[in-house]
Each structure stands twice: as structure tokens, then as C-alpha cells.
Amino acid sequence: MFRLIPSIAVGESQVKPGGVLIYDTNGITSHPTRTDICIYQIDATAECARLGQAKLFNTMILGAYLKVRPVVEMENVMAGLKKTLPERAWKMLPQNEEAIKHGGEIIRQVR
Question: Would the pLDDT of 93 be above 90?
Fold first, then answer.
């Protein structure tokens, strides 16, 4: 299961042993400490700001997750986005695909 959780303290406690915790570094002052999980960080907020595309945050995080746990192929992600997004949002599909790829490139394993 994958959920965005705004608090490291809450999120870290909810990950099962052997699981994965991915967190955005923005505003984090207390970093995860558990040693029985895989911990990754991503500067998605900063990257979205740099690109001027705050709306791409979730797809960038999705790309990071798919890098760590490749549970679905990119073609299926894009097909799913096209199927679920309203037609007026389809013009953003190329940017979403790039954000997914970029998220996979900028994720870093902490431990």
C-alpha cells in the first residue's frame, strides 16, 4: 500500500517491518530512524517549484515509488491516467509522464 502521510512520525510507525517509506524532504526536521524498513527521500516539492509545476507533485512521487517497487508498467500508468482524467486535462499527460520519470531519477535511498 502507498499513502502520502504528512508526518514522518506517523508515517514511519505505520510501515510494516521490511516495508518502504518514501518521504519528501520539504519541511522535515526529524528524519526517520527505523532500521527495519527501507527509507527513501525525494525533493519533489523543490523540484516541482523549480519546474513551476506544483500540480505534478503526486505524479513525481508516483515515479519515485515505481522506481523502488515497479508494480506497474509506464504504459499502464499513462493509460490509467488518460482513462481517469477528464479530457480537458489530457494536455498535461506528457508533463505527467515526464514527472513520473523524473521522480524515478531523483529518489535517493537513505537506508
Answer: yes
CA–CA separation, 101 vs 42, rounded Å?
13
pLDDT at position 4, please?
A: 55
Q: Amino acid identity, residue 65?
A: Y
The confidence score (pLDDT) of residue 29 equals 79
Please, what are the domains in the chain? 8-105 (3.40.920.10)
CB hemisphere CA count around 99 (13 angstroms): 27
Q: What are 39's three cell numbers? A: 527509507
The structure's pTM equals 0.84
Helical (H) or strand (E) element with 24: strand 20-24
Place of cell 482513462: 83
Continuous H helices in the chain: 8-14, 44-51, 57-68, 74-84, 93-106
Q: Is the pLDDT of residue 10 over 90?
A: no
Which is more confident, 28 or 108? 108
The C-alpha atoms of residue 96 and residue 102 are separated, in whole angstroms, by 10
